[in-house]
């Protein structure tokens, strides 16, 4: 079949009138991988300084006509390989080209602006690129952000817990905003997508508090990670300035896979796996002595209670509830199909994905169905159009863990409070009443519902028009935009027979939510590329328009007809929330790049933005940038056999973080009382003069490539200053209005990032690629013109955060009061790690076997561990009744430091080492595939992998990286009975047809 | 290059059409969810003023949950057993040496329901007053009625922060949000409350007669006339005067109040809780609810009770006691609050029974012992415990009155026992033996007050 299929397309990249001459000769050749000898299908062969070229066919072969009898220089390139230049002549026409893998990614093209991209070797910023192979090549991770752990220097990723379906936050280069979420802007194929943590209503029903304790998933979870071709991370203002108002916390640019010309290829992958908790803590045993101590007290009631407990102890079976609820095996399945192909005019990439993953807690799980069609079409020689369409349906059941109040609706709380001698399991269908807490967690897990179903459509379009083309310049118009429509239907349901419901006046609680968000964006740019002497100039001008609309409606029904989940079946019906927001933003930008022969590359740019969120909606804020990179090794004087590339670089840029919606309003809120509606003056006093948070960043560093590009080093130092930080100025509470947003703080992040990667061994039978990343960040409040204050977590008694000039905002303070300190409390810790490191290795053995692993190390950084606080309260912490100091008071009642009643007890060092990913893949030799399946099957790949494989830490929690407030900018290190993080193990099969 | 020109013109046309709908135009987005405060500041309509007035009723009850749970714990009328957060026990009872700080558990940086919430009501009343003042769409008598109501609520609400921080003093000049006045002493604060109630009285007296011209909730069901509201205002004034040790003032105010020596002791205005879209009664718990978060009767209240006192019907003995174990030991509650029939029962904020006890207290302090005993006996006989037979000295009568107040006003949303014990310098009589805690005298100013002064100082 392959023989009859003659792949003979000759690609002419730009169709220009080519003069016909009689003199010509033909060059033929083969392009292969220098190490494995495999043909490099689709390699580009281009006659240098012309637009004439060819592509290699399935055997790596190509043919190219040279339209003269002169020598010509061919540039042979292939994605992921270092390109080569070869001079051909009528006497030298048969080439054998072996390309070397681009281990150091010098040739990679990085998107750096709204309408521009640059070769990595010319880049002036430390932009992290994560390829599809980096992202999902080792193992299958549920969500895209979850797949970024340890792959981006400078990124701190935290999860709300291990519940299926995501719930992660990313901070790039420290804290960018003290009050905002400090999350990067995410742009998917040019669309500003919604990555919010949407409300589920769980915290309202469980009594935990606000929506930030819902443990909702962030909506990046909807994107199928396998669709992604690359992720580029612009970590700070110096790289992201051209994105303007929303780029303070960095920008993550996600580009999905696209079709390529040639035979239609079908690829089918199936992963089957299982998950178990990564770590369990164990629960404490009980004894009569312990019961007598725990239930001490002289009153009659206390004596009776003691007797009851002793009786239960003597009769009861022993049930390890942590094991019962958490230590289950979850089945994981991920099915993917890709169809790609196309002609010279039209190319397509179509993918389908079914992810169906259970959670390790019963009745939890995540199902995602995704269909994508990415189409590229040339309307004419001059007009290129591309569309990317993605429909997603995802359903997440996250169960009941984490914080609660009074409702008992948290498994973790129940584990903390129920002794192992009391049996909560149902007998003849009847769940016993839990005498230790407000709910029977077995009944809760079996019967309660916490679900969210998202239907989402993301559509991107792109139109490139070549307006003008001369021999050394071109003018191009680029129009792009898209929309992201998302509807999230949530349900939290506690049936009427649950203990907490029987104990309430209107048993049965149902909270139904509908949230809709519609983001649309439009962008138009003119790009003019021209030459000024030997300097290549790229000039861009354009505009951007963004619109965001959100609405939410939550209804609650209490006093339910048994088994009913329709609001009309509720005795008491209530509109729980109705909220609408609309945001409009617009900007214009100019950018000029100058490249002198790849030796000196400079860029200046500016963007002006206005936003309806700012106090003055017509005011334009300007965001300039400038950068310079010098490729010393490209200068003629530089002559080193060791150093191939040496590039000092410096970049400066400014960005902003938008004002939160509503900051400018002083509303009269609705308050119902006794059948009437009142208008109450809000606690917030709007600030009509509020400014966006602006940040400036100076970044400088050196990139170097050594030993024939086998080793690369990237070192970067940055200083990021955020001015006009928005914080609530606390008014005197006596005036009856508590807060007003203010711009009176400055925050500084300084940090250092180092990446070293290289091919340590490169032989035809064995290759070892290794990459180490190191990063550290120091945040500091450099100016605070509002008074020092404490905020966050659960107050001073359990550890909270200090906002004071000259202190990091990550400072953990708490009781006892100490008037000598700013804020009036004792310092107990700092949430900020001393440093992070990650270590990635891939071993390629012969042609077919590949082993990879990724290791993460975080040194320092404290958590507030309230899981321990709870289990100490319930007497269930492992080792609770031990008495290390022998004073007769058990450890569980005497957590240091003395006098054992302060907040310092719960502040713990959360350093860890994690084996994040391991993967082992075997590609069945082509010959065997061909002989077994004939021509029908082209490629078979088998693998086994694991995610969150091992955790080494002294921290006394399920995972030092989880937090009940994961999405908040500052207090995102608070551990309250979270869903344990799973360890995931997979088996993979991929078939290519 | 002909084609190029066509494309160029095409894209020019395209960009012109885009400019037609001007993508660079950013509109001003008005709050899509709420009206603004400024919408009522200039010539508000009567319905707008009505909404703000009902809003004041809503703010007026902002203190109820926190004060009921916390102050009644401080005075050991109750324990708030909370299985989800041990600090309701350890911190509120002052166990293991805990003492209130500026950001104490349950009160935050602003003092929460015991400090910020009453001031929100005071501010709401000020907004109401200025909305009425700046409106030409309501009559002068209607305005006077609004002023009277607003100032009455302000007078009531000022007593809450004043009693929370007590000798630390509060701010009484709070009209300018960015320039609040200094802290004044407790007695000055109470004088301010009194003067507001006096002003309310004079406003009401200029507000005509008949029905209050705006709709009030069922909380004022028996008092929604100008005359009725004057009675409520005087009742509040009687309480304020007692705190001011102005005993004749108490008696004078009681004369203008709804006190009725022969009437229902429970008569009085209340905070309604209707259930959605309103909230539920925050103090309601189902009898015998299988929960570990519940307000229980303090053991000393049960221990000190007079047998067969009718008021013991306020306590419901649970089939299963509630036990909470914390790092400060184990607390067990045997009885729960039985005052609320349903979760939509209204919570009274001052009632006839208190007024009669105030009468007794005023007479006792004025050494009018016979009148004092007569008032005491109204309460005793209603409780079914016979007439007073103790000594008729001031000390003995005050003892008796404070005892009766413990049971008549048990766990009202005011923390009567805590305040009463402090008034008579008897905080040391509140027993701590049941929980090993300490009795607080007062709270420091919340952190936000200190911070504000620092901010202005800069």
TrEMBL record, chain A:
Organism: Belliella calami
Highest taxon above the source species: Bacteria
Keyword vocabulary terms for this entry: Cell outer membrane, Membrane, Signal, Transmembrane, Transmembrane beta strand, Transport
Protein family: Belongs to the TonB-dependent receptor family.
Record Pfam families: CarbopepD_reg_2 (PF13715), Plug (PF07715)
Principal localisation: membrane
Compartments reported by the entry: Cell outer membrane
SUPFAM superfamilies: Carboxypeptidase regulatory domain-like, Porins
Protein name: SusC/RagA family TonB-linked outer membrane protein
UniProt membrane topology term: Multi-pass membrane protein
Database matches in PANTHER family: HEMOGLOBIN AND HEMOGLOBIN-HAPTOGLOBIN-BINDING PROTEIN 1-RELATED, TONB-DEPENDENT OUTER MEMBRANE RECEPTOR
Domain TonB-dependent receptor plug: 121-251
Signal sequence annotation: 1-23
From TrEMBL, chain B:
Sequence similarity: Belongs to the SusD family.
Keywords: Cell outer membrane, Membrane, Signal
Subcellular compartments: Cell outer membrane
SUPFAM superfamilies tied to this protein: TPR-like
Span of the signal peptide: 1-20
Keyword Nucleus: no
Organism for this UniProt entry: Belliella calami
Membrane-spanning segments: none
Main subcellular location of this protein, as a coarse class: membrane
Domain RagB/SusD: 341-442
UniProt keyword annotation of Membrane present: yes
Name of the molecule in the record: RagB/SusD family nutrient uptake outer membrane protein
């Amino acid at each position: 079949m392959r023989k009859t299929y003659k792949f003979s397309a000759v690609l002419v990249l730009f169709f220009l009138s080519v003069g016909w001459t009689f003199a010509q000769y033909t060059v033929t050749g083969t392009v292969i991988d220098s190490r494995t000898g495999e043909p490099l299908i689709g390699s580009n062969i281009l006659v240098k300084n012309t637009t004439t070229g060819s592509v290699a066919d399935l055997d790596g072969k190509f043919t190219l006509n040279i339209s003269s009898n002169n020598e010509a220089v061919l540039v042979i390139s292939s994605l992921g390989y270092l390109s080569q230049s070869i001079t051909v002549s009528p006497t030298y026409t048969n080439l054998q080209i072996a390309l070397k893998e681009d281990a150091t990614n010098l040739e990679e093209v990085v998107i750096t602006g709204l309408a521009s991209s640059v070769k990595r070797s010319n880049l002036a910023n430390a932009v992290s690129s994560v390829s599809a192979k980096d992202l999902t090549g080792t193992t299958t991770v549920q969500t895209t952000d979850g797949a970024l752990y340890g792959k981006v220097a400078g990124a701190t990723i935290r999860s709300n817990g291990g519940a299926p379906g995501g719930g992660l936050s990313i901070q790039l280069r420290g804290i960018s905003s003290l009050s905002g979420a400090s999350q990067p802007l995410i742009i998917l194929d040019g669309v500003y997508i919604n990555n919010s943590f949407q409300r589920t209503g769980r915290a309202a029903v469980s009594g935990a508090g606000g929506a930030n304790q819902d443990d909702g998933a962030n909506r990046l979870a909807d994107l199928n990670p396998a669709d992604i071709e690359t992720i580029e991370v612009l970590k700070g203002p110096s790289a992201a300035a051209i994105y303007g108002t929303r780029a303070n916390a960095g920008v993550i640019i996600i580009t999905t896979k696209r079709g390529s010309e040639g035979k239609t290829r079908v690829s089918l992958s199936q992963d089957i796996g299982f998950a178990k908790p990564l770590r369990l803590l164990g629960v404490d045993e009980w004894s009569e002595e312990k019961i007598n101590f725990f239930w001490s007290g002289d009153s009659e009631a206390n004596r009776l209670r003691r007797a009851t407990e002793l009786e239960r102890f003597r009769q009861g079976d022993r049930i390890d509830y942590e094991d019962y609820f958490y230590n289950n095996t979850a089945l994981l399945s991920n099915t993917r199909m890709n169809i790609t192909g196309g002609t010279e005019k039209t190319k397509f990439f179509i993918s389908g994905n079914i992810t169906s993953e259970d959670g390790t807690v019963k009745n939890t799980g995540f199902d995602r169905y995704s269909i994508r069609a990415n189409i590229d079409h040339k309307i004419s020689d001059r007009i290129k159009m591309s569309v990317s369409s993605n429909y997603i349906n995802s359903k997440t059941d996250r169960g009941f863990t984490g914080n609660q109040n009074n409702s008992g609706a948290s498994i973790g709380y129940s584990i903390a409070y129920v002794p192992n001698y009391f049996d909560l399991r149902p007998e003849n269908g009847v769940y016993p009443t839990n005498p230790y807490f407000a709910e029977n967690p077995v009944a809760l897990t079996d019967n309660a519902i916490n679900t969210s179903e998202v239907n989402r459509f993301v559509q991107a379009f792109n139109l490139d028009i070549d307006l003008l083309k001369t021999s050394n310049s071109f003018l191009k118009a680029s129009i792009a935009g898209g929309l992201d429509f998302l509807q999230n239907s949530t349900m939290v349901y506690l049936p009427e027979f649950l203990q907490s419901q029987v104990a309430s006046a209107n048993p049965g609680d149902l909270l139904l939510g509908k949230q809709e968000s519609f983001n649309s964006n439009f962008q138009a740019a003119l790009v003019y590329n021209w030459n000024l002497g030997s300097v290549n100039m790229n000039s861009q001008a354009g505009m951007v328009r963004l619109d965001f609309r959100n609405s939410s409606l939550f209804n609650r029904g209490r006093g339910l007809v048994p088994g009913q989940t329709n609001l009309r079946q509720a005795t008491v019906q209530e509109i729980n929330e109705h909220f609408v927001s609309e945001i409009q933003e617009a900007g214009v930008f100019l950018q000029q790049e100058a490249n002198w022969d790849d030796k000196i590359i400079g860029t200046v740019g500016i963007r002006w933005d206005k936003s309806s969120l700012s106090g003055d909606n017509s005011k334009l804020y300007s965001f300039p940038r400038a950068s310079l990179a010098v490729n010393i090794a490209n200068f003629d004087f530089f002559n080193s056999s060791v150093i191939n590339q040496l590039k000092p670089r410096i970049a400066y840029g400014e960005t902003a973080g938008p004002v939160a919606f509503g900051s400018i309003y002083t509303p009269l809120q609705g308050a119902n009382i006794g059948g009437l509606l009142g208008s109450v003056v809000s606690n917030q006093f709007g600030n009509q003069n509020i400014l966006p948070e602006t940040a400036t960043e100076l970044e400088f560093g050196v990139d170097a490539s050594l030993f024939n590009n086998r080793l690369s080093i990237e070192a970067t130092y940055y200083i990021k200053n955020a001015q006009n930080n928005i914080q609530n100025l606390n008014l005197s509470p006596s005036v009856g209005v508590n807060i007003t947003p203010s711009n009176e703080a400055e925050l500084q992040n300084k940090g250092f990032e180092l990446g070293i990667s290289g091919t340590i061994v490169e032989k035809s039978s064995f290759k070892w690629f290794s990459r180490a990343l190191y990063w550290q960040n120091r945040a500091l409040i450099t100016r605070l013109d509002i008074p020092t204050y404490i905020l966050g977590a659960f107050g001073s008694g359990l550890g909270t955060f200090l906002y004071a000039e000259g202190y990091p905002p990550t400072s953990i303070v708490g009781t006892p009061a100490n008037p000598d300190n700013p804020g009036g409390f004792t310092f107990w810790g700092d949430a900020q790690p001393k440093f992070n490191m990650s270590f990635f290795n891939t071993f390629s053995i012969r042609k077919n076997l590949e082993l990879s692993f990724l290791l993460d190390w975080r040194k320092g950084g404290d958590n507030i561990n309230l899981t321990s606080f709870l289990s100490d309260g319930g007497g269930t912490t492992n080792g609770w009744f031990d008495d290390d100091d022998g004073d007769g008071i058990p450890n569980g009642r005497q957590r240091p430091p003395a006098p054992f009643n302060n907040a310092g007890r719960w502040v713990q060092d959360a350093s860890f080492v994690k084996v994040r990913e391991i993967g082992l893949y075997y590609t069945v030799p082509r010959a065997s595939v061909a002989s077994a399946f004939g021509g029908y099957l082209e490629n078979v790949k088998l693998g086994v992998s694991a995610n969150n494989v091992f955790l080494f830490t002294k921290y006394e929690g399920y995972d030092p990286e989880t937090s009940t407030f994961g999405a908040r900018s500052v207090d995102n290190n608070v551990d309250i009975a979270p869903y344990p993080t799973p360890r995931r193990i997979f088996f993979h099969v991929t078939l290519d047809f | 290059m002909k084609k190029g020109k066509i494309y160029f013109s095409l894209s020019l046309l395209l960009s012109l059409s885009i400019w037609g709908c001007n993508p660079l135009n950013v509109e001003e987005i008005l709050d899509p969810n709420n009206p603004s405060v400024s919408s009522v500041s200039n010539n508000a309509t009567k319905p707008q003023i009505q909404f703000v007035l009902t809003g004041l009723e809503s703010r007026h009850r902002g203190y109820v949950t926190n004060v009921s749970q916390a102050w009644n714990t401080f005075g050991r009328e109750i324990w708030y057993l909370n299985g989800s957060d041990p600090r309701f026990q350890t911190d509120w009872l002052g166990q293991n040496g805990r003492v209130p700080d500026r950001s104490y558990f349950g009160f935050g940086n602003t003092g929460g329901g015991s400090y910020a919430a009453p001031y929100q009501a005071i501010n709401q009343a000020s907004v109401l007053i200025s909305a009425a003042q700046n409106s030409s769409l309501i009559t002068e008598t209607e305005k006077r009625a609004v002023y009277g109501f607003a100032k009455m609520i302000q007078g009531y609400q000022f007593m809450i922060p004043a009693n929370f921080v007590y000798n630390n003093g509060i701010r009484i000049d709070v009209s300018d949000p960015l320039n609040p006045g200094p802290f004044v002493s407790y007695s000055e604060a109470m004088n301010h409350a009194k003067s507001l109630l006096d002003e309310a009285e004079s406003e009401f007296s200029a507000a005509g007669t008949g029905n209050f011209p705006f709709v009030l909730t069922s909380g004022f069901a028996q008092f929604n006339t100008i005359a009725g509201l004057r009675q409520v205002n005087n009742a509040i004034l009687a309480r304020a005067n007692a705190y001011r040790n102005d005993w004749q003032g108490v008696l004078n105010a009681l004369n203008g109040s709804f006190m009725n020596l022969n009437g229902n002791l429970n008569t009085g205005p209340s905070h309604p809780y209707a259930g959605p879209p309103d909230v539920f009664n925050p103090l309601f718990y189902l009898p015998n609810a299988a929960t570990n978060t519940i307000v229980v009767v303090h053991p000393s209240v049960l221990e000190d009770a007079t047998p067969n006192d009718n008021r013991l019907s306020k306590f419901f003995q649970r089939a299963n006691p509630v036990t909470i174990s914390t790092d400060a030991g184990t607390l067990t509650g045997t009885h729960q609050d039985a005052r609320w029939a349903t979760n939509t029962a209204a919570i009274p904020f001052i009632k006839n029974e208190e007024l009669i006890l105030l009468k007794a207290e005023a007479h006792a302090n004025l050494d009018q012992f016979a009148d004092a005993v007569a008032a005491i006996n109204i309460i005793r006989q209603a409780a079914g415990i016979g007439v007073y037979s103790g000594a008729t000295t001031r000390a003995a009568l005050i003892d008796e009155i404070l005892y009766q107040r413990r049971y008549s006003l048990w766990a009202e949303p005011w923390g009567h026992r805590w305040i009463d014990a402090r008034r008579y310098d008897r905080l040391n009589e509140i027993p701590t033996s049941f929980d090993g805690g300490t009795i607080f005298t007062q709270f420091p100013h919340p952190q936000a007050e200190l911070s504000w002064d620092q901010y202005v100082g800069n």
